[in-house]
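Lab notebook, bench 4. The sequencing result for the construct came back, and we need a structural model before the next group meeting so we can plan mutations. Quick request posted to the team channel:

Model the 3D structure of this chain.
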Amino acid sequence: MLPPLHRGGAGPPLLLLHGFTDTWRTWELVLPQLERRFEVIAPSLAGHAGGPPLGAEIAPDVAIVDAVEAVLDEAGWEAPAIAGNSLGGYVGLHLAARGRARSVVAIAPAGGWALGDPAIEETLRYFKAMQRLVRDAVPRAELIASTPEGRARSTAAFASTAEHISSDLVAWLIHGAAACEVMPLIDHAAAHGWEIDAEAVTCPVRLLWGSEDRLLPLPGAAVRFRQEWLPQAEWIEIEGAGHCPQLDHPIETAELIAGFSG
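Done. Here's the predicted structure in token form:
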């Protein structure tokens, strides 16, 4: 069973937030480098493996942000540096709008399509189909992850290479995705879309995007971030990286986080 969060290192506080269907273990390859410079907390988000349940009282996206804010309160962190991937980047920007971030490194944050972009519906359909596939794969997750071909095929949607990703981590990515409460989040996103109170985000923001992101490909998935919400943010593309550069380009990604968060 996955612990609800990871905490380690010493130094200024740094919060790491994973993406949709992922868990805090997505940060394993960057943790050694970051924990030499920061005290790191990496929680599993609500509705995800290891995280608290979403519940039904409030909107799922609000529930996720509230749960992370509770982690900050428990840790005694008022406004740490934040780095978040995909859904985690979107959540990190919402925390910034609440005044709970000193800085944000948003790595391919979710929700940046132009309104009405058909890619929105296509991406939600992908996650529905992916959930069915990973649940079918769970009984064979360790076997799939034991071969180079299995690791490459399992990570192709979000990483450009799996050569250095351990079989244990790949197997856990399958288990974690299967355990995620995807439907409440997908249904809410389909009905309500994504919004950010960009005027309330007053801390420094760095946007990172992999040039080979297949899940939220450029330029379409970043339109609202670049043109409407955060045109003033620093923009960096990681050449050759996929949707989760913390997995396929961990050294470069850790440095891009650390250099902006210190």
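The chain has one domain: 5-261.
Will bring this to the meeting.
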